[in-house]
Amino acid sequence: xxxxxxxxxxxxxxxxxxxxxxxxxxxxxxxxxxxxxxxxxxxxxxxxxxxxxxxxxxxxxxxxxxxxxxxxxxxxxxxxxxxxxxxxxxxxxxxxxxxxxxxxxxxxxxxxxxxxxxxxxxxxxxxxxxxxxxxxxxxxxxxxxxxxxxxxxxxxxxxxxxxxxxxxxxxxxxxxxxxxxxxxxxxxxxxxxxxxxxxxxxxxxxxxxxxxxxxxxxxxxxxxxxxxxxxxxxxxxxxxxxxxxxxxxxxxxx
Length: 254
What we know:
Layout: H1 13-22, E1 30-33, H2 42-54, H3 63-74, H4 78-85, H5 91-105, H6 114-129, H7 137-147, E2 150-154, H8 159-168, E3 177-178, H9 180-183, H10 190-200, E4 207-211, H11 214-223, E5 227-231, E6 244-246
Parallel strand pairs: 1-2, 1-4, 2-3, 4-5, 5-6
Helix pairs in contact: 1-7, 2-3, 2-6, 3-5, 4-5, 5-6
């Protein structure tokens, strides 16, 4: 067996055959994964931490309210994260703005200064404790290791932050990791996917890229020459979508 994440040997085995069969016969020698909500259940860690640090501000909020609170923070305020990627905000600034938007929906305003700083730092600490990998990750990585197929991760966040996250999720074996600061580019810029390919030692046309964001992951990587796959865990409707789509990482092995 080759070392975890190492380059594939000449005999990739049954997993490679399965991957190739699922992609219409394309030879797959490497796999790159998105991290957040692909390998790591980011939404769980975010919403769990949010509730921990905000319950004292929202006493009596029912479950439906907490679900709305979580949706605002995780899905309805991503434009603040886009501004972070564009260099307009720091990571903590975008996080605070998202928190303020979610709390503001329920009529609560975080005070400037110590209260806001404490909320952000408490959230960051709590979130780290809730980080976990999805159940389908380990079986897939085990199979790739056994087959000698190289793999890694490409993320729209900075390298060191995502390295800590992967390690906290028990995914230390993912040694190839490309962040936005690695090449000074973010998805869907082709440079970030191609740096992952370069580090795997594979070719773009023989490298799978799997992620939960249809536009940034599947479409973006495909445009860069990789074999993009949309991981649609929630079964989101996408009428007319003709790209590769799976509902679980285990489908890569089917």
